[in-house]
Amino acid sequence: MIGNENIYKQIKEFGDYQTPEYFVEKVCYYINQKLNIKPDIIIEPTFGLGNFVTGSLKSFDSIKKIFGIEINSNYFNFAKNSIDQKINGKKIEIKMFNENIFSFDFESLKESISKKDNLLIIGNPPWVTNSELESLKSYNIPLKDNFKGLKGLDAITGKGNFDIAEYILLQLLSEFKNYDCTIAMLCKNIVARNIVRDLDKYKFKLSEIRMINFDAREVFNVNCDAGLLIMKLGQTSNFICDVYDFKNDSNKIKSFGWVNNNFISDIDKYDIGIDGISQLVWRQGIKHDCSKVMELSLKYNNSFKNGFQEDVEIEDYYIYPLLKSSDLKKTVITKTRKNVIVTQKKVKEETESIKLNSPKLWDYLLSHSKELDNRKSSIYKNSPRFCVFGVGDYSYKPYKVCLSGFYKEPIFALVYNEIKRPVMLDDTCYLLGFDNYKTALITMILLNSTLVYNFLKSIAFLDSKRPYTKDLLMRIDLLNLTKKINFTDFFTIANTLKIENNLIEQDYKDYIKRISSNMEK
Questions:
Q1: What is the side-by-side strand order in the sheet with 319-323?
Q2: Which of 268, 392, 465, 520 is deepest in the core (most CB within 10 A)?
Q3: CATH 3.40.50.150 occupies which residues in the chain?
């Protein structure tokens, strides 16, 4: 008997969420009856136990040929026997391949498919990322070809990670771009979003895109947002995806996609008014990847406690107050519960000087060198020992306006403290740094306006792990925002937020001048 650990590994390795027969029937019914698609040929590129193949046989009377691909030999043998029984004398050509989708030769299929045939590619590709497969040392993984064309740091950090389903869908769209082809696949919503976002990078064209959301917990016992992604290949390009709900498919939930060269999460709610380029540069907080060592709680004087619950007595020269996403729940924050060791003033700066400036700290870092030297991210390779990232002059500004990247409700906080020690943010947060208190205060009040709130909700995908990113925040045009909010409106916003201030209209005019000059002061 296979142990639970091996079963879990297999499920993870193959992204193995077999689609229940009842839900396959619903998917096929929707495609057949709601979309009136009558396929001549079915391709199931990762057929698993074969439920989509057998479901298609039941639902589509027009089928002439079926092709299926499956890497798992146990699934292949089970499905092939089951499907052979279902055909039961029907005049349908069926070919099943026990092969890897990532190395499969699709030319062998194209010889049997006319460009006049109505082709339906249907199924449920793996719900797993390439990074998860690499951690399992899986062989069921695409070639490392950086297929998204990422450059520099993006290619070696999180942005280089992708869902295997996305890779498979793009492979199929490219292979059959010149055919009368519809692709209908179950996938996570982020897969659909990424494909629509990057459409201009690809050589194929989609004439129709829609997503029908369903409850993944109910169907697969998986906690994520998912849907049936349906894409029709064609000669004209459509850059907008309409979103529906499986339980009430007559009403459109929303549309997302490209409008005037801007990527929008909810087109009906979108207002182009403040969509542009921020006059101030948003930054991400400090990345250290070793919170139990680098983050400290203050006990008294220079005595701290780390994440291992060890008492730590070190100099405070490199220690700063720290805020994390979970701390950013108010509009003004002057106190912190944690501290962080910041070993550099800027990225790549040498760290050997810590030995002289703070010998106790250096000894502390050495005592935890195993944890620090084994940080997994490749950004630490060939970098100074005990280094951090996401640090620069902006980190040491006395006033900051910050936002958590994790929470669905955007709350912008003005952060500073009374001990004249700059407050640091961790890498789950985004920030603007200021030398001038009034400039920071006015920025915070403007960003907490209803205009910005509604704008962010229309461009952010709230089902993402990190709904708000630097790229999104950089789209807030502060200058255009001040054109829409006069000083009277501004003062009303401040009162609504219960922000005590002694700002006068001249302060607001001076702020606009500074923003117009792109001056971060």
A1: 311-313, 303-305, 295-300, 338-341, 319-323, 424-425
A2: 520
A3: 4-238
